[in-house]
Amino acid sequence: MARLILSGNLQQLAGGDSEVEIDAQNVKQLLRALSERYPALAPHLEQDSFAIAIDGEIFQDVWFAPIGPDSEVHLIPAIRGG
Amino acid sequence: MAKHHVTTTVNGDSVEFLCTTEQTLLDVLRDELFLTGSKEGCSSGDCGACSVMLDGRLVCSCLVLGVEAEGCEVETIEGMAHGEHLHPLQRVFIEEAALQCGICTPGILVAAKALLEKQPDPSETEVRFWLAGNLCRCTGYDKIVRAVLDAAAQMRAGAASSASGKSSIGNKPATARA
Amino acid sequence: MNDMTNPDVLARHLKIVGTRPSRPDGVDKVTGRAQFGADMYLPNMLTGRVLRSPHAHARIKSIDVSKAQALKGVKAVITSADFDDLPSEFIPAGEMMVNFRDMTRNVMAREKALYEGHAVAAVAAVSEAVAAQALGLIEVDYEVLPHVMDVDEAMQPDAPLLHDDMFTIGVEPTPAKASNIAKRVEFGFGDLEAGFAKADVVIEREFTTKPVHQGYIEPHACVANVSEDGQAELWCTTQGQFIVRAFCARLLGMEVSQLRVKASEIGGGFGGKTVVYLEPLALALSRKACHPVKMVMSRTEVLQASGPTSGSSMWVKIGATKDGRITAGDALLKYQAGAFQGSPVQPGAMCAFACYEMEHVRIVGFDVVVNRPKVAAYRAPGGPIAAFAVESVVDEIALRIGMDPVEFRLKNAAKEGTRAPYGPKFGPIGLVETLQAAKAHDHYKIPLKPNQGRGVASGFWFNIGGETCASMHVGEDGSVDLVVGTPDIGGSRASLSMMAAEELGIALEHVHPSVGDTSALGFNFLTGGSRVTFSSGMAVVEAARDVIAQLRERAAKIWEVPVEEVEWLDGRANFIGAGEPKSLTLVELAKSAGKTGGPIIGNAAINATGAGPSLATHLVDVEVDPETGKVTILRYTAIQDAGKAIHPAYVEGQMQGGAVQGIGWALNEEYIYDKHGHLENAGFLDYRVPVCSDVPMIDTVIVEVPNPNHPYGVRGVGETPIVPPMAAIANAVSHATGVRFTDLPMSPPRVLDAIDTEQAA
């Protein structure tokens, strides 16, 4: 199962959980599972664009980026730049 | 209100145009003569993007009225090259990457040419203070100053090596150097 | 799908990538031929002008446009009534999450004017003079309200309220009372208390910075042309023609493919041209008038009404052991967003400690609205502001424990595997290499004289990838058209065609790049986030490999051999199977393309991932005049990791340009408002950006720690250069004067005041 590491705001909205095991093979599945498990997170996951770091590589707006069984996953706010 | 009829010389060509009292020379060059190489960055004479030569003097064309061009000689960026021969400044600017977005480039080239005509061997400080009226936000000025100094050196060498003093000073730019 | 990874790029023998050829758009730019936003003229064109609020905060009770409409020569007048009111929700547009309720109100005020300069109406007329006259005939009934300009004041419970439906997001429970605080964000991990307990030295400081404008020399400009059946064309200066299309289509109720947007050459953007201001207005006017409408902002309008970056109020606390290890870091960042939410406090918070290995770290950020123009992105948005604070405290700690500031940073530097404060671990990054280069640089050894000081600072920016398309067409004579979708701000057509030529193995002069309009390619995210050389580069490489695959197929068909026995090398297809060697050049294959299967076109449509951060270290020496407070930059060295510099001159250019913008931010630039919220310095005379005589040569050192996720190892470089300068200069000025500077800009009156106060004490 992939490990999702939460910190800061997101950790607070997840009731303080900093590490969550989630059964998901891609980003879309992960977000869905996360919203179901932590309803307080759901509006943030929709409203803010998130980038996902999978084992350190950052994917922005990529629903089907593959998540491996031992992957470490982080949600980070999308960066737009200037 | 009736417009003014103005007769002037632009880049060596005799030109006539109509303009209102309040139209600046910059407005006229761009909107009446479609010489859009001179740019409007501020309309208050602070950025230099509109720099042109008026009777041999470097001016901000946004601070000159269109009617003031009557009987004058105006030189803009469009007159800097001779046919397909770029002025050494133009060529060196490309070679030395002295531009990024290019909006300030026409004004800077006109100003730099005016400097080198007055002072063919300027110091770095002289170049910097001469160009202090031309804002650039992209380059940090470094490559611009180097290009002006290098072009000046090339022009001095060209003038020195030519018997008549009128050397062919433009080359087709190299577009590929692998 | 091509494998885009290339960890060995530095070992490859490259013929074109890494050299310094002339850029393809160079001649047009040095002759004045290049067409920027205001250089477009269409037959039958009208001039559009905007009526702007003279008040910083006012309710709009009514607008009467009848006299303006009746004026001879006026063809259309618009107000907010001409735009649909869009609901307050974040929806995807142009691949971003956008609150269109805010956007529609920013381009044209509805209930309230929220800053001086806020657009309240617009006209299109046969001339500039008639348009100006028409503006004077529009009657607006304002109820002036109290305004607030400062971020700390705006956070007070009794501050004038900009939006009565703003309830702070990110606090639990959601507040019952509306405020000017749009959002609270938090990042970090570990146990701060434990971390600070381990420290021998703890320093905490408060900082303020002022809003600064991106300062592009070219004002916003566009020409809109809507025909009677609703088909629309828009020419505009922009960093993203697809973003403009997405926003305008939504604001005007069009479908995206109904609107074709062409990006002109762009006279600077730096993030400030990733939004729309005039474009929806010009389209609405054109639609109403059935004429093309041209709109150009004056410099005054640019400063009054287009978005600068945030001003801030910050607090940073860092603890370290006496042998130089950071044990904990804590930061509070309050950024002002202007009149609508959306300051870059989030990326600022993420970047703040990103240069360091942190075990215990917390960054809290607040996004706060004030009666100023809505903030827009500015080169590494949010990053330089936070770095100013953190890098200043790092400097003080190093000084306190008696350690060299470069050594201190080396001791704590983030590396591959370091956990970023925002969560994930870094891949390979080059901070250590830049610090080592700083230590070894001659600049660092030059002795200093009285009133002189040296400052060091490091900086980080993420860099992004994103949706990108490219198309490569092989002409019948073997010359190549390369169409990309990202506007060229600083020379990207050069680096992209260089990568294309390198892949194909042909001379650069046969590759002709252009930036396509929105009908030419699939969606492209904007030019920004330091993404073009990386993402468009990746797309170009993929398109080139697509072309090569087809060329090999054609050769295989011609020779009647399996395609596996055809290799592509140096611009030729070579038969490498058993039998007599055969070869066909790109030119030969192109000539026969029609007969061997049709035109040869390579396409790429990707979401580029794997962008790598770029890190930098800057060194600066200053001299402070104790009589006037003037700070002179004596020497400046910018050292940055580019991954792989495709065209080194343009990488150097980014480093130099960002450094000088940082110099302006540090020493002079700020908005000066009077007590009525009116901008007093809305021009380049008094909004003082660096001029040529203000700065010395900016020396650059490019280090290369390749990004393994890009075929040429590219990292974006454009934004990182603006992250270190303010802190580096503040550190230098602090060392020169013995006074710690925590407020920007360090303009002469402020420096003099600080020196005098210190001497009096």
Describe, in plain words, how this protein is organized in 3D:
The complex is a heterotrimer of chains A (82), B (178) and C (761). Chain A has one domain (2-77): Ubiquitin-like (UB roll) (Roll), CATH 3.10.20.30. In chain A, 28% of the residues lie in helices and 28% in strands. Chain A is built from three helices and five strands. In chain A, strands 2-1-5-3-4 form a five-stranded mixed beta sheet, with helices on one face. Chain A starts with a strand and ends in a 5-residue tail after the last strand. The mean pLDDT of chain A is 86. Chain B is α+β, with helices and mostly antiparallel strands and 178 residues long. Chain B folds into two domains: 4-79, Ubiquitin-like (UB roll); 88-156, Orthogonal Bundle (DNA polymerase, domain 1), CATH 1.10.150. Chain B is built from five helices and five strands; from the N terminus they run ββαβββαααα. Chain B has a five-stranded mixed beta sheet with strand order 2-1-5-3-4, sandwiched between helices. In chain B, strand 1 and strand 2 form a beta hairpin. In chain B, helix 2 crosses helix 5 (142-161). The longest helix of chain B has 20 residues, at 142-161. Chain B starts with a strand and ends in a 17-residue tail after the last helix. Residues 163-178 of chain B have low confidence and may be disordered. Chain C is α+β, with helices and mostly antiparallel strands and 761 residues long. Chain C has a domain at 26-34 and 465-607: Aldehyde Oxidoreductase, domain 4 (2-Layer Sandwich). Chain C contains 20 helices and 28 strands. In chain C, strand 27, helix 18 and strand 28 form a beta-alpha-beta unit. In chain C, helix 7 (241-252) crosses helix 8 (278-289), helix 12 packs antiparallel against helix 13 (431-440) and helix 14 packs parallel to helix 15. The termini of chain C are far apart. The mean pLDDT of chain C is 96. Chains in contact: A-C, B-C. Chains B and C meet through helix 2, helix 3, helix 4 and helix 5 of B and helix 1 and helix 18 of C.
Note the main attributes of this structure.
heterotrimer, B: 178 residues, alpha+beta, Ubiquitin-like (UB roll), DNA polymerase, domain 1, 2 domains, 5 helices, disordered C terminus, C: 761 residues, Aldehyde Oxidoreductase, domain 4, 7-stranded mixed sheet, 24% strand
